[in-house]
UniProtKB/TrEMBL annotation:
Similarity remark: Belongs to the ParA family.
Transmembrane segments: none
Native organism: Phycicoccus avicenniae
Name of this protein: AAA family ATPase
Functional summary from the UniProt entry: May play a role in septum formation.
Domain AAA: 60-242
CDD domains according to UniProt: ParAB_family
Domain of life, per lineage: Bacteria
Amino acid sequence: MSEAAREESPTHDDTEERAAIAASIPGADDLTPLAQAVAADARKRITLAGRVVPRPPSTRVLTVANQKGGVGKTTTTVNIAAALAQAGSTVLVIDLDPQGNASTALGIEHHSEVPSIYDVLVDGDALSEVVQACPDIDGLWCAPATIDLAGAEIELVSLVARETRLQKAVDAYVSERRAAGEPVDYILLDCPPSLGLLTVNAFVAASEVFIPIQCEYYALEGLSQLLKNIELIRSHLNPRLHVSTILLTMHDARTRLSAQVAEEVRTHFSEQTLDATVPRSVRISEAPSHGQTVMTYDPNSSGALSYLAAAVEMAERGAATAQEES
Ligand SMILES: Nc1ncnc2c1ncn2[C@@H]1O[C@H](COP(=O)(O)OP(=O)(O)OP(=O)(O)O)[C@@H](O)[C@H]1O
Ligand SMILES: [Mg+2]
């Protein structure tokens, strides 16, 4: 959709009406734990379904990173991206993991013949040459990763400007889309679980870091290493880089461990941590095997509603920051 068309279709702001309906659902005290969970989901559904979020004044580029494996980086990237696109924003996901999990979850072809992010990083191709539209969601695109990317860590070492190759491609793509009157609102970079050159490229290309933290024992281990690396990149390669967003994933409200991890993260990172948390959910883990995000696979599930809540919060916090700065 063009910028002009978007501006011509302002959406009715019904936030207050939604809040009133949501408030009429019985409170937690009167209910059993299962009924409490159902009521909480119903409240979220009423408050969030079909919401249109504010679009940022300029493209927000976020690196989703945590060198710990399996904490929900890819799941968070694709579901936040899908939720933002469904809420009226334009979003590009760049898959920087040779495993290609983000490409799979978005239903994007990524066998070895497909033009991919490898061609951008190693051969200097334009991002627009490799980007594919996500089949299920309007306004969502993906630059896929193929298995070729596994060699890129080594191939990049001998190339000139090895740390800034992605940044150049991203900046060119952002300008190109703006010039075409179809600006991209969010670019989310899904990183592999390591701090190699692919992740360094992502840190240099982005201005924000989005850290998913799994609510498990050892969750905070390695976090200080990640923060140290971000600081190094900031002082040497990218002064704009900062941790803007932290999301607690695989949260289990019934366990004391989840509550302890959540409390510790909120104590250390009170500003960055989103109020929304993502529960452990079978629907979330099933969705990728259908080539889908949970946002289309089961939009009414608690997992989808939580990712929607997180995306709305992220967009609204960004809009508030942009207003303060202007
Ligand atoms: N909220 C959740 N509930 C249930 N399963 C989840 C949830 N989030 C992620 N998973 C599952 O946990 C596994 C790891 O998630 P994911 O692939 O997103 O992590 P990752 O940090 O990207 O991993 P890697 O470091 O390998 O890239 C996957 O099988 C995924 O389906
Ligand atoms: Mg991953």
